[in-house]
Amino acid sequence: MVQADLNDTTSLIAAFKGATVVFGVTDFWTIFKDPESQSRKKPGQDLTEYCFEVELQQGKNLADSAATVTGLHRYIFSSMANATKWSNGKYTTLYHMDSKALAVDYAKSLPQLAGKFSQVQAPIYYNLLWEWGLPTTPKKVRSAH
User: Fold this and answer.
1) Is the pLDDT reported for residue 126 higher than 60?
2) What pTM, to 2 d.p., does this model score?
3) Domains of the chain, earliest start first
């Protein structure tokens, strides 16, 4: 097992060395919850816009790093639909979706990943259901029997 930082391509390249498959995941909400994000964003910048920028760059870092891997068979990125595009501009502030979608566009533009890139769009990860207690979170029910 190796450790890498999504903000540091050097660490990603080192972590991916020798891999044949890379699965990339970014997390908008970790950036959002990080108290440091408040001080790192530009003055007057909305926190969600800042998180969008950071997550998009992390997605680009993943793609750039995967593109350097000799012998790579597949780069898979966990993404979401581009809300701005698919709503014809009606929804322009779903930054947690658009950052991932734009990272996909970027990965598709890299010649080194041609024929090696796939994306998966999972509507939500189950660990988030438990952590956040969303309305869709399964509830344990005791049987009357």
Assistant:
1) no
2) 0.84
3) 9-132 (3.40.50.720)
**Helix segments in the chain, DSSP class H:** 9-16, 28-33, 35-40, 47-66, 83-86, 95-109, 126-132
AA letter at 130: W
C-alpha–C-alpha distance, residues 80 and 55, integer Å: 13
How far apart, in Å, are the Cα atoms of 128 and each of 11, 29, 94, 134? 27, 10, 18, 8
Residue 54 pLDDT > 60: yes
Report the pLDDT averaged over residues 98-102. Answer: 97
List of residues 6+ apart from 51 with CB closer than 8 A: 28, 31, 32, 37, 95, 96, 99
Strand order across the beta sheet in which 21-24 lies: 21-24, 74-78, 117-120
Out of 30-39, 52-61, 136-145, least confident range? 136-145
Distance of alpha carbon 21 from alpha carbon 71, whole angstroms: 9
Range 20-28 average pLDDT:
95
Give the orientation angle of helix 9-16 with respect to helix 47-66, to 10 degrees: 40
Selection from 75, 51, 64 nearest residue 11 by Cα:
64
